[in-house]
Write a structure and sequence with these properties.
single chain, about 425 residues, alpha+beta, Beta-Lactamase, Helix Hairpins, 4 domains, five-stranded antiparallel sheet, five-stranded mixed sheet, 12 helices, elongated, binds adenosine-5'-diphosphate
Amino acid sequence: MNQDWRGALIRHLLLLIVAAALIGAVSGQYAWALAGCLGIYLGWTLWQVLRLHKWLKNHREDEPPPDGYGLWGEVFDSIYHLQRRNQRARGRLQAVIDRMQESTAALRDAVVMLDADGNLEWWNLAAERLLGLKSPQDGGQAVTNLVRNPRFKEYFARGDYQEPLDMPSPVDDKLLLQFQITLYGNGEHLMLVRDVTRVQRLEQMRKDFVANVSHELRTPLTVIAGYLETLLDNAGDINPRWARALQQMQQQAARMQALLNDLLLLAKLEATDYPADNKPVAVDLMLLAIRNDAQALSGARGHRISLETDPKVRLKGSEAELRSAFSNLVFNAVKYTPEGGEIRIRWWGDEQGAHLAVQDSGIGIDPKHLPRLTERFYRVDSSRNASTGGTGLGLAIVKHVLIRHRATLDISSVPGKGSSFVCHFPRQQVA
Ligand code: ADP
C-alpha cells in the first residue's frame, strides 16, 4: 500500500512533466505549459480536499470515505481506519462503564460521588432509596442541602472521616444508616452509606440482655449475701470448719455484686449518648475524696498518694459518672502498684481544656496490651486479677464516661516502672 501511493505520486509527477514537455514542444511555450499542467494538478488536489471535507462533515456512522486516488486515497483510508479504531475503543469503554453502573446499581449500599465542594456528581439506585436523592434534578446540589441533619453537616464539614457516622435515614427514621466518606483524586468524596438497622437491633438486644440478666441476678445475690452476713455475724454458733467456707462465699458474693454493679453501670452508660445532667462539677473536691478512699484502700500497703489540683477548673458533666471513672483510675493505680509505691494525681487546665493525670510507680503494662486495655473483661494477667478483686470492667467504664464527656484517654506505661493514665477534656466541656 505504502509503495503503491509512492509509485502513484511519482507516476502523476512524471505524467505532469511529460505532458508539460509535450505541450511545450508543440506550442513552444514550455513555461506556460508547465504552469497550466501544475494548475490542473492543483485543481484536482483541491477537489480531493473538498471531497474529504464533505465526507468528514456529513458522513453517517459506518459510511466509508469516497474513493480516492494515490496519496489522497491513502489519506481517506487512514482517517477512516483511525475513526473505526476510536469507535471500537469508545464502545469498549462504554461497556466497562455500563457494567460498573449496573453493578453499583445492584448494590444494596448507597454509593454517592461528590466533587471537592461536596456537590453531587453521581449516585446509585440505593442512594435514592436510602437518602431520598432524586435523579436527575439533585445533580450538582450540595449534599448538605439534601441530607440536612446537623450531625451530618458537622461530620461533613469536619473533614476527618476516620470514624463512620451513624444516624437515621433522612427519608425514614426507622432506618439507621452508617455514613463512610473517602477522599480521592483532587479532594473529591466517595460516600458509602450502609443500612445498619439490623446490626443495631442485634447490638441493642445484646445490651438489653446483659442489663436484664444483671438486674435479675441482683435480688437473689442480695439475699444470699445478706444471709451469709447474718451467718458470719453468729460465727460463734457455727462449726469452725464452715466458718472459712462461709467467709470465702461472702468474698465471692461481694465480687459478684461488684461485677453486677459495673455491668449495670455500663449498660446505663451505653443507653444514651450524653449524660443527663450537665452541671459544673468541682473536680478538686471530688479528687480529694477519692484520694482519701484510695489511701484507705491502700491501708497497710503504705502507698504515697499525692494530689495537685486547680480548684478553678470545673467540668461540665455528670458528677456520679466522673466520680466512678476517676476512682477507677486511682484505685487501679493502688491495686497495681506494689507496697510503698508512689501515686501522683494531677488536675489542671490550659488552652486545650482540662486534664487529669494518674501516674503510678507500679508494675506497668506491656505496650502490646495498651490498645485493648479498655475492652470489657480484658486482662493483662488474669491470675493476678483474682487477687486484686478487679472485675475487668473498670477501664471500659472509664472509656464510656470519657466518650460521653467528649474526652479522650491516653495510656502510657513502662513495664516494671509504672503507668500513666491521662484524660483530656476539650475546652467546650470546661465550665
Ligand atoms: P480490673 O478490674 O481487672 O482492674 P480494669 O478494666 O480496671 O479491670 O483494668 C484492665 C487491666 O488493665 C487490669 O487487669 C490490669 O492488668 C491493667 N491495669 C489497669 N490499670 C493499671 C495500672 N495502673 N497499672 C498496671 N496495670 C493496670
